[in-house]
Amino acid sequence: MKYFNKNFGDIGASATFYLQEANKEIDINRKSPVMIIVPGGAYMWTSWREEEPIALEFLSKGFSCVVAKYATEGLEFFHDKNNDFSKEPVSSFPNPLMDLARIISYTRSKAEEWNLDPDSINVLGFSAGGNLTAQIGTYWKKDWLQKLVKLDPETYKPNSIAISYGASQTYIADTKSEISKLVNYASLGHDQSIERQKLINVIDADTSDCPPTFIWHTMQDPLVPVENALKLASNLRKHDVDFELHIFEKGKHGLALGDLRTDSKKDRSQSNIQARKWVDLYLTWLTEHKLIHLF
């Protein structure tokens, strides 16, 4: 395995690469599918629980993995009320989308050198990262995004996307609580106009260019209502996009792998025997779409 980090742009984005290496004992010409992992963190930071543990899980399934760490101010910034909140945060739209597009494009450009399958670039996002994943799936073909990143859209087009308890609707209209104000600031900056809200909230967007989409959520999620997943699925259906949707009854927000490897709670509330099956369901779905060949 090759393991390294690379910075993208000049505002703090980076990616961590976990690359399979072809071996002559198996098949020296084998090309591995790619999993681009997009962690959550309310656009304030990126959660480690949705970074390396996810990469190691899919690395073990034969993927080359890339953790896309879009630029954020970092959680410590939001804990210190003396920090300058008058400045525009690096995480405000469309900066994270541009970061992700560049990371995908760079990864695909290395397909031959790194023995990657350029036709199996799959993007898997969690929570806010799920929102960002939905954005790249929805907007990859838009002229305005191409003008921003100055790249051929085909280079950052995902072959599939997966949204794990994704915040498809990130802007919080009720701004009475401090956390709501912070989430709105982190995701939109100071310009929280209706037009920008609609851009980051892809529930009502034209998703006709979206690649095949896998969605999973839980009924009990207290932070991102299950209606996010249901509305997004309905939108995909409206635009005749292939999708698979799994709603698990139990489980709080932020389950990640759904077992002790990613459980940060003393009461083990981030583990769930049903919801943790999402990985196998996802792998089966990818196999059905001929994006991986495990069997």
TrEMBL record:
Residues 30-236 form the BD-FAE-like domain. One of its GO terms (molecular function) is hydrolase activity. Keywords: Hydrolase. The keyword Cytoplasm does not apply. The keyword DNA-binding does not apply. Pfam families: BD-FAE. It comes from the Bacteria. SUPFAM superfamilies: alpha/beta-Hydrolases (SSF53474). InterPro entries: AB_hydrolase_fold (IPR029058), BD-FAE-like_dom (IPR049492), GDXG_lipolytic_enzyme (IPR050300). This is Alpha/beta hydrolase. It comes from Lactobacillus jensenii.
